[in-house]
Specification:
Order of helices and strands: EHEHEEEEEHEHEHHEEE
Oligomer: single chain
CATH architecture: 4-Layer Sandwich
Number of domains: 1
Number of strands: 12
Strand content: 25-35%
Radius of gyration: 18 Å
Helix content: 10-25%
Structural class: alpha+beta
Largest sheet: 6 strands, mixed
CATH class: Alpha Beta
Length: 277
């Protein structure tokens, strides 16, 4: 396998017309022909399938649901990974969260593809606008998890999710190597920024858009807050974002799939030679 197609989508839990939204999400993801999907705001129910399992029903996808917040009564809220390929070493990784705020975590698994298992991290950071300092701590912890589970000499990891942060925020500047946040720097390529966003005349790539009435309800500004990051290209050119775009961004009969749009990216995962001079 030369490249991996990944998608990230915040599914907006069960808000809005979920019975009508569910098939739009399932059909939309299937049409993208993704290898791996990262989901956020997924609800898990005691004794019942999670929303990730509902979305995966009938597809044959492997599912890893990773609770982040134990709401009570067995109800949980978290992230999930759906994959056409087997998942290895699936885990739930903690993120620092202050008291009184919904707890956050990372869904981790290695996607078992030809050429070597690709480390995948799916997360959803704290959403409150005034808690940027919390998100800064969370991305530092996220980078530590990547460092521990995805050594530099191994397959290039992919990190994706709803970061609840604009591209010029300290949180995202840390991810792309522009600020150290009091420690060492890291570097991940923002797939949309280095491909679609680098094209002349590219739009802002909003993923939370007031054009969508479900997003408009919050009266927040339109923003790009959902990301696919890859730590690459490495010396073997693994981890290079090759293309990215926004998807699931249109309604069907006035029903939108979610209050967020999906981000799709093709990432180089196989070793390949450098271009000749």
């Amino acid at each position: 396998m030369e490249r991996l197609r990944v998608v990230t989508l915040n599914i907006w839990n069960r808000q809005g017309p979920w019975p009508q939204r569910l098939p739009l999400i399932r059909d939309g993801l299937r049409a993208l022909d993704a290898d791996v999907v990262g989901l956020q705001e997924v609800l898990g129910f005691p004794g019942l399938p999670s929303q990730a399992d509902e979305i995966a029903a009938g597809t044959g996808w492997h599912v890893h649901y990773a609770p982040a917040w134990h709401i009570g009564g067995g109800l949980t809220y978290g992230n999930a990974i759906l994959s056409k390929h087997p998942l290895r070493d699936a885990a739930v990784l903690p993120l620092p969260t202050p008291d009184g705020v919904d707890t956050r975590s990372v869904a981790f698994a290695r996607v078992d593809v030809p050429g070597g298992p690709v480390p995948l991290f799916v997360t959803h950071l704290t959403f409150q606008h005034h808690l940027g300092h919390v998100r800064c701590k969370q991305v530092r912890a996220l980078a530590d998890h990547v460092h521990a589970l995805a050594p530099i000499d191994g397959p290039a990891p992919i990190v994706m999710g709803d970061f609840n942060a604009n591209p010029d925020s300290d949180e995202i500047r840390f991810m792309v190597g522009l600020t150290p946040l009091g420690g060492d720097c890291v570097y991940f390529e923002d797939a949309w920024a280095v491909t679609a966003g680098a094209e002349p005349g590219a739009g802002p790539g909003f993923t939370y858009d007031r054009r969508n009435p479900y997003a408009l309800r919050s009266r927040e500004p339109s923003r790009r807050i959902d990301y696919v990051f890859a730590r690459g290209p490495d010396r073997h050119l693994r981890g290079e974002p090759l293309a990215a775009w926004v998807a699931l961004d249109q309604p069907v009969d006035d029903v939108w799939p979610s209050d967020h749009y999906a981000v799709v990216a093709d990432i180089q995962v196989a070793v390949r030679p450098h271009d000749p001079f």
